[in-house]
Amino acid sequence: MTDVLELPSTRHEAWRWADTGGIAAAAALAPVAPAKADFLDLPGARLLFVDGVLDDAASDLHRVRIGDLTPGDHPLGRRATHGWSLHLDAGAVADPVQVVHVATGGENHLAAQIVLAADTSAQLVETFVGAGWSNRQTRIRLGHAARLMRAVRMTQDAGFVSLRDDAELGEGASYVATVLGAGDQGARVDAAITLAGAGGYAEFGGALLTRDATKQECAVRVRHAAPNGQSHQLWRAVAADTSQASLAAAVEVARHAQKTDGEQSLRGLLLQRTATVNLKPELEIFADDVKCAHGATVGELDARALFYMASRGIPAPRAKALLTRAFVADALDRIADDTVRDAFAADADAWLERAL
Amino acid sequence: MLKIENLHAEIDGKEILKGLSLEVNAGEIHAIMGPNGAGKSTLGYVLGGRPGYEVTAGSITFNGEDLLDKEPHERAAAGVFLGFQYPVEIPGVSNVQFLRESLNAQRAQRDEKPLSGAEFLKLARAQADALGLQQDMLKRPVNVGFSGGEKKRNEMVQMGIIDPAFAILDETDSGLDIDALRIVGDGINRIMRRPDKAVLLITHYQRLLDYVKPDRVHVLADGRITRSGGPELALQLEREGYAEVAA
């Protein structure tokens, strides 16, 4: 199956925990009725893609354009040749862009391009629902002091979501992205973020919640190519049943990227001992005046805390939900917008209800 | 109210309680005293239903019902409160959220309506004030960064909010300075000294008993009650030591 999809094998280090079999199975899923498109109560553009095709009647494009985009050479990303783009000229402030991706079985591919000129700011919220293989390539270019806030939630009932992001930040630009995997699909979050200008700021993190036999992973690489950059990769993985959640986060600091401040915090929580969490923090530092903090831990829910809560009257499933939610809260609290953060927290809660 | 008969309990196959019997009636405060390792905390955990504490023989009834048959959260809803010697820190869960969840979970099990956020906050603030716990500590994660004394006060705030019929207080006096001891003692009297309530005070020292006068004092040694008496027994223990009195 993997050969048919022409994806790298898991012998390739960057694809070590990739569920290529899960992608193939998702691509072969039989058609299902379209799931309801769930837009949040935010102003701005609303894009509804059903199997990667824009639903004109249900969409409101604002500044967004639809058209062909240059595919990259990434094994996942190169499949997406058509999609949406947002270009902001210097000084412009755009309303939020919401994208809902509905999959109805089979495979679908869609590209996106976000180009923000100097001193612009944009907010992007993406939601994945339905079943099938949804494959996305997102290209991000941030100019001087441009700011992009992005939140992605993967809440499909089945199948697979693969994200390939390629972001380049100019001087003083800021990119804050939070990804939540709270559905019953597999996932690969594959990202390359380059701080090309001095003083760039990147946050790329989130929470992967897996149950049954699903596999989700992030494979993120942040490259500090200029001095005074700051990056934070804060990921939480929660795995139940026989599922597998994997976090591979790399920081690369180039020789001249002095005064880099990089942080990686990877933490895993096993809800059952039959589940698997893989963590791989990776540092490649060629500069000599940098600060790179990294932590990686895997554990179980604190039995003492569970008994303490029970002794106050809280039933075990609820106590587990509260502790698990507290565990992922760090990651989701990075979302600045209240409406978006509440919606993501509710998705995490709904997942916990099902998993516990 | 609480009746323990011939209780045997073990942890990891090691027997800690070896035939303990005790009866506490409504309106009474009992103190359990004893040397380290006698099984005082084990008694508290067995009453609370902590996993790993296995009852191998005997019975515990609470208001006529088999307590051992209930899950820990059901015991709480039935009116049993366990004050911890080492209150647990819960990062990421605020005190307010924890307490509101606790109270409303108990109310739900008793088919009572949940308290609204406003009703709950009013109650929580009143209890925090009464125990000298700063209001901002209600918003902080449960017991995280609290001093030993603050944790114990927080236990009492929880007890005040939950308003249980029966409280087992395990070494509630440890880690308290004299002022805090008085505040906590006053709290126990205010919340629990009622004709329809009862308390089991587990303590190593007699000093808390200066503030909370027990009706009965028991000596727990090597897994059983070896002596029982009135408040004067506590003073005798303090004077003569456990080795003399408990033997």
Automatic annotation (TrEMBL), chain A:
GO aspect biological process, one term: iron-sulfur cluster assembly
Q: Where is the SUF system FeS cluster assembly SufBD core domain?
A: 112-327
**Can you tell which superkingdom this protein's organism belongs to?**
Bacteria
Please name the InterPro entries in this protein's record: Fe-S_cluster_assembly_SufBD, SUF_FeS_clus_asmbl_SufBD_core, SUF_FeS_clus_asmbl_SufBD_sf
- List the PANTHER family: PROTEIN ABCI7, CHLOROPLASTIC
Protein's name according to its UniProt entry: SufBD protein
This chain's source organism reads Sphingomonas ginsenosidimutans
From TrEMBL, chain B:
Return the similarity comment.
Belongs to the ABC transporter superfamily. Ycf16 family.
Q: Which SUPFAM superfamilies match?
A: P-loop containing nucleoside triphosphate hydrolases (SSF52540)
InterPro entries linked to this entry: ABC_transporter-like_ATP-bd, FeS-cluster_ATPase_SufC, P-loop_NTPase
Question: Under which name does UniProt file this protein?
Answer: Fe-S cluster assembly ATPase SufC
**Keywords recorded for this protein, A-Z:** ATP-binding, Nucleotide-binding
Q: Which organism is it from?
A: Sphingomonas ginsenosidimutans
Q: Matching PANTHER family, A to Z?
A: ABC TRANSPORTER I FAMILY MEMBER 6, CHLOROPLASTIC
Query: One Pfam family, short name please?
Result: ABC_tran
Any one GO molecular-function label of the UniProt entry? ATP binding
Keyword Cell membrane appears in the UniProt entry: no
Write the lineage as a comma-separated list: Bacteria, Pseudomonadati, Pseudomonadota, Alphaproteobacteria, Sphingomonadales
| Gene name per UniProt | sufC
Q: Which residues form the ABC transporter domain?
A: 2-247
Q: Say if the entry is tagged with keyword Nucleotide-binding.
A: yes
